[in-house]
Write a structure and sequence with these properties.
The protein is an alpha/beta fold. Helix content is about 45%, strand content about 15%. The protein has a single domain, classed as TIM Barrel (Alpha-Beta Barrel). Strands 1-2-3-4-5-6-7-8 form an 8-stranded parallel beta barrel, surrounded by 7 helices.
Length: about 260
């Protein structure tokens, strides 16, 4: 069964709009876990426009003390170092909080959202070194990848234990054309083949980006996917049905 990791970035974004303490990302994590989520994901960015360094530490403390069996997944660009705005760099965050999983994405510092996987056409020694470093801190390392089989093979050769398939293109097609459209079905088959290949070469498979209650009816048929990370759509649905009910609905959609 594919498990759900709830991305709390949008909770932090709403809080930051008023610079107060509400809504609380820690309280949101408790609600999500009570509703059936099996993981908590954050993607702290160098500009700290949503999840902040203090949130990462607060959530790490929460999970370690109250939910030791729940996965904490920290996403980010491993090449993003510390800055004057208070971002300590991904290296420091992984070292100090020791998450269960580190998902590495090739984002630029000011990128709005993740929109492509790593390009590993040539061996990236710096990335391989980061993977080994985070593994030495006890984290399982997942690389954010397009569903391209040669690239997924390279992810393994770089030392990653999992890949997270970037599902934005599939979600866009599904939103425009619906499940029965040939282009949507072709995209689905592409992701299915990528997930199966990853499993065959010993890589675990995660997925994420713009997955929602509609397109999961098709995408969740890829049983090779161990985990999906969902934030934006889940929080949008929570505005209508409440956070607990929204998380429950996504857990049910994955069952």
């Amino acid at each position: 069964m594919t498990v759900l990791s709830v991305n709390l970035n949008k909770i932090a974004l709403l809080r930051n709009a008023r610079e107060g303490a509400r809504p609380s990302v820690v309280d949101a994590a408790r609600v999500a876990l009570a509703a059936g989520a099996q993981g908590i994901t954050v993607h702290p960015r160098p500009d700290q426009r949503h999840i902040r360094t203090s949130d990462v530490f607060a959530l790490a403390d929460l999970l370690a003390s109250e939910y030791p069996d729940i996965e904490f997944n920290i996403e980010g660009n491993p090449m993003a170092g510390p800055n004057a705005g208070g971002y300590p760099g991904l290296d420091a965050l992984i070292e100090k909080t020791r998450p269960a999983q580190a998902t590495l994405v090739p984002d630029s510092d000011n990128q709005l959202t993740s929109d492509h996987g790593w390009n590993l056409t040539t061996f990236n020694q710096d990335l391989a070194d980061k993977i080994a470093l985070y593994q030495s801190y006890g984290a399982r390392v997942s690389l954010f990848m397009d569903p391209d089989i040669p690239q997924i093979q390279q992810a393994q050769l770089h030392g990653a234990e999992r890949v997270e398939l970037y599902t934005g293109p599939f979600a866009d097609l599904y939103s425009e054309y619906g499940a029965e459209n040939q282009s949507v079905q072709s995209s689905f088959q592409n992701y299915l083949a990528a997930a199966r290949y990853a499993n065959q070469i010993g890589l675990g498979v995660n997925a994420g980006h713009d997955l929602d209650l509609h397109n999961l009816t098709l995408f969740s048929q890829i049983t090779e996917v161990a985990e999906v990370s969902i934030g934006h759509a889940l929080i949008c649905d929570a505005l209508e049905m409440g956070l607990s009910a929204s998380v429950s609905a996504y857990v049910k959609a994955l069952a």
